[in-house]
């Protein structure tokens, strides 16, 4: 699998990354043995980047990944890089414009949280620590990021990152230009294309690493779910696609499938493969993390990464599917 630098001077990562959210059990029942099997299969296929967070099962995802890392020979372990996150302390998600950074990302809180991340993963230094959300209200006084810089000087963190809040992904652009983040993790998919307007060009200009998440729109862009599909209550998507959201989404997914047929690509690219390839297509994107719950999903996703890039004309057609639907999490 192709390996690239995460940013202009970052460590090497695979173009396809392993998303560890489902390992925490929030996408339905998940057995740890299956999680470990999926991780093993991914590494054997050449995936060298794993993304997780403490919110994925209250640390369960991190702990499973940490357990897996201990099984690897040192020669292989040194090539595997794991990213995790520090969430803001209790309060609105994402942080509101009225939140004070000292109440959500105070120095003592960040330090204590980083120690938990180190313990869960069983490491002495985090490859990449990302603040899990942000607000533009803190851009002119970004003290939390300065705390992370001190932790890096102390050898606790290698690279500093930030996950964009869905409703204002461009809030990180100032931070990128100010050199305060090494890496940004953004939502980019066939429906959500806003990062292409300014964020991606600024990333290339500044040498900031780019991780893409939600390339499959929480599963809708696999084409597996009909308009009347209902997710179990223990699957977070039961809320994400609440009300008529699944019906509206399925209708738009069907239009993308029609385009695949029109271009004669449906025999070579599944809908999921199309979505992942689209997410990989911008030159600013270093790696695309995709959730993988079992070895079978790993095999499917790895095969997708190996496909030739989508034709330029078809990529232009996919740009027409941008959907300014706002933030799902609150209201319809």
From TrEMBL:
Span of the signal peptide: none
InterPro entries listed in its UniProt record: AKR, NAD(P)_OxRdtase_dom_sf, NADP_OxRdtase_dom
Family annotation (Pfam families): Aldo_ket_red
Residue ranges constituting the NADP-dependent oxidoreductase domain according to the UniProt record: 15-319
Protein name, per record: Aldo/keto reductase
Provenance organism: Rhodopirellula halodulae
């Amino acid at each position: 699998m192709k390996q690239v630098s995460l940013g202009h001077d970052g460590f090497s990562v695979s173009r396809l990354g392993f998303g560890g959210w489902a390992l925490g059990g929030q996408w339905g029942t998940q057995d740890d043995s299956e999680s470990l099997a999926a991780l093993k299969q991914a590494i054997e296929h050449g995936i060298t980047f794993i993304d997780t967070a403490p919110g994925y099962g209250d640390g369960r995802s991190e702990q499973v990944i940490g357990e897996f890392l201990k099984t690897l020979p040192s020669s292989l372990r040194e090539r595997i890089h794991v990213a995790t996150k520090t969430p803001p302390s209790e309060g609105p998600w994402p942080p509101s414009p009225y939140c004070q950074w000292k109440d959500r990302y105070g120095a003592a809180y960040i330090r204590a949280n980083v120690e938990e991340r180190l313990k869960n993963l069983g490491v002495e230094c985090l490859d990449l620590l990302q603040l899990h959300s942000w607000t533009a209200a803190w851009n002119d006084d970004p003290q939390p990021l300065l705390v992370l810089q001190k932790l890096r000087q102390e050898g606790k963190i290698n690279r500093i990152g930030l996950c964009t809040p869905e409703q204002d992904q461009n809030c990180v652009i100032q931070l990128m230009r100010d050199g305060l983040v090494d890496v940004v993790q953004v939502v980019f998919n066939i429906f959500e294309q806003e990062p292409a307007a300014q964020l991606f060009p600024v990333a290339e200009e500044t040498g900031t690493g780019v991780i893409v998440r939600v390339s499959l729109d929480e599963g809708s862009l696999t084409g597996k779910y009909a308009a009347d599909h209902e997710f179990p209550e223990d699957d977070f998507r039961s809320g994400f696609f609440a009300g008529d959201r699944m019906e509206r989404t399925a209708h738009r997914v069907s239009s993308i499938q029609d385009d695949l047929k029109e271009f004669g690509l449906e025999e070579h690219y599944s809908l999921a493969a199309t979505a992942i390839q689209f997410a990989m297509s911008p030159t600013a994107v270093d790696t695309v993390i995709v959730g993988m719950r079992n070895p079978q999903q790993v095999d499917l996703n790895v095969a997708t990464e190996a496909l030739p890039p989508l034709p330029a004309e078809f990529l232009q057609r996919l740009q027409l599917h941008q959907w300014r639907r706002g933030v799902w999490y609150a209201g319809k």
